[in-house]
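Please predict the structure of the following assembly.
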Amino acid sequence: MSDTTLSPRSIPDRLESPLASALKSWEMLLALVAVAIFIFNSLATPYFLNPWSLSDATFNFTERGIIALAMAMVIISGEIDLSVAGILALASTAMGAAAQFGVDVPVLIAIGLAVGVLCGAFNGLLVSGLGLPSIVVTIGTMSLFRGISYIVLGDQAYRGYPSGFSFFGQGYVYWVISFEIVLFLVMAAIFYVLLHRTSFGRSVFAIGNNAMAAQFSGIRVRRVKFVLFCLTGLMAGLAAILLTSRLGSTRPSIAFAWELEVVTIVVLGGVSILGGAGSILGVVIAGFVMGLVTFGLGLLNVPGIVMSIFVGLMLITVIAIPIVARRIKSRR
Amino acid sequence: MLNRPEKPATMTAEPILRLEGITKTFPGVKALNDIALELYPGQVTALIGENGAGKSTLVKIMTGIYQPDAGAITLDGEAVHFPSAHAALDHGITAIHQETVLFDELSVAENIFLGHAPRTRVGFVDWKKLRAEAADILKNMGASIDPGARLKDLSIANKHLVAVARALSIEAQIVIMDEPTAALSHKEIEELFVLVDLLRQDGKAILFISHKFDEIFRIADRYTVFRDGEMVGSGLMAETDQKELVRMMVGRSVDQVFPKQEVTLGETVLEVKGLSHPTEFDDINFTLRRGEILGFYGLVGAGRSELMQALFGATRPSSGTVTLEGKPALAKSEADAIEKGIVYVPEERGRQGAVIGLPIFQNISLPSLKKTSRSGFLDLAREFALARKYAERLDLRAASLSQDVGTLSGGNQQKVVIAKWLATQPRVIILDEPTKGIDIGSKAAVHEFMSALAAEGLCVIMVSSELPEIMGMSDRVIVMREGRIAGEFNREALDAETLVRTAAGIEET
Ligand SMILES: Nc1ncnc2c1ncn2[C@@H]1O[C@H](COP(=O)(O)OP(=O)(O)OP(=O)(O)O)[C@@H](O)[C@H]1O
Ligand SMILES: [Mg+2]
């Protein structure tokens, strides 16, 4: 008979090293997919392996990716914000209107960001203040925000942005490295730290897994959710600045249906649509994958409607994979 | 007090269900290793073992939720295997699981008959019959639950009774009960035992899991003991005693005496005056002194948990005051209460306690993040250190601290929940059914911990439905009945009968 000791059994911190678990992660798989698409693209067309085309490819996802960073945190907390494209349209419209009065670039930027935050705060108030489900709230505000743009603009467009404004969406920091990609990577680093290295980020995970237990643990659940919606609004405002600057004009249909592409990036990045799990690294890689795919399809002259079918299929697939995988695993 | 009922004379009957060589491995732990178990018709077999010994894992294998890595199951002399939960149900095996799997939004009757509802001739659910049968079952059980009520409006004890009703509604030959009494108070346990006796007389084979030895000796005919995933003994209850069982289970003997230290009580720390809630409790007055352990006893539904949640800021009382060390301390929110130094270890582990999906160390550090992080930035080394300190003191059994709490055994989840709030180093700690589902050795560890904390000057409020725990640990006991304080007793004046009578509202003769 074996004799158990009286001293407490010691429990290891982890069973496998962080490196070993990283190698088995979804992010790793996704990175391999990105490499595969990269190789496929370069074989499919000789134009792809050119620094300038590669640089162009990044514009396909940087603006959406910036929103996706914040959206990832919202989805991990168990909520969703479908109004981001609406916020973007409204922020762009506000900037366009201000530009007609000849305001300076810094003021334009302040307006874009402020409109974004205010829209986000409005969502946040409805969700945390009144306790309404975010999917309902943000479907409503999605139409509300874009609707205001339509009322203001009708079938017109705002042009005439000051000359310095074009830098944000069209400028290069160095050689082929655009301002947008640099900003995206900087924001990714900030969000990485926020989600994975701060107690705020930890509380987001806790809320997404069990909001009631999080509340009982002293986390101010409603406040955290409010902040997350404001943050998403802010990122939508930032994306509005980039996109407006890149296009040089504002129409009310700007960034139409982007919310779905943003959600696709987030879910493709391994964030659970049910909340509670995910990583910023995954979202960043997913951004690159989306950029490479859409750019590749573009090079192959695939028409836009096929591309949106493709995005739709991709969204369903990436949502289905973890659910099916879990089902198979539990069968065993 | 616990006299054993007549045993049927069929002690030598053939087993109806036989498990052999069952093995199941999870990452980092062999949950079951070459297990054997036999169940006999008309007999209750008790399955005992420490937290994490593998009891619930075996239940899940017997009900088709998990597939064993190896081993054979024989039912009525025939080899069977259960690829799904439905297959086990079809073979007449039903279980009340430790974490009850019921549906909050459905009615009681729907929960009872989910998956096997009576049908009309054309194949639709026969709602009238369903409701009538549900009402019948509940009445036979002596449970006063409205079959039309929504499940989420019931107390946990009543939810548990619905799970029992569900098991009864299935024409099963084998009924498994995984810690069915953990959430119940004295009165409901008595009612449950009457039911178990009925099932036994019906010739059903019953597997009964519990950490409470008085229950096991009272209800079981046979026992099987698990230790660390292995079967270490089995036999007839009549031929063993508690000491032997505990030795088999733990591998050593455990001092079951509650290690209450004598402390000299200090000044009054917490004072509650006229605290009332529109529906749950009314005009509550009590004080708590430094170093004191104050027990709250009562039947399920007496309003104890609701009162404690009001002190913790989770629900808003309608009137009354709370003062902590002379300062007003009516908490506005849970975060506010924790800041003031009042913490609450909730009764509903799965919903309010553990954040399933997060690893153990993150669960333990969650309410202490302010302390473990540096100006908002996480410090994993400190979190691991904090988690290790409390996990080891409570004798947690886990493969690693990075394991998801959801994959821990029920009792070990409870230990994580206790560790989590102890780690905040509060001034007043409220423990709601703290040792629910915890094995005998760890229970002693929790009690020792509580006692040591009180000696260090912490104030403890302990809500418990377990008489020995209340009587062993408390300096003073308040009995609640129907939302009001029905009596208050000092340690010297404690007497089991009086407590039970006061809780039930029976006047002394
Ligand atoms: N899904 C899982 N993944 C990983 N480990 C698991 C899983 N389920 C159970 N385990 C481990 O298997 C062991 C046995 O757990 P089990 O739940 O069967 O214990 P138990 O005897 O029911 O304990 P308790 O008295 O606490 O309920 C534990 O070490 C537990 O951590
Ligand atoms: Mg168990």
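Residues 359 and 369 of chain B are 15 Å apart (CA to CA). Confidence is low (pLDDT under 50) at residues 1-10 of chain B.
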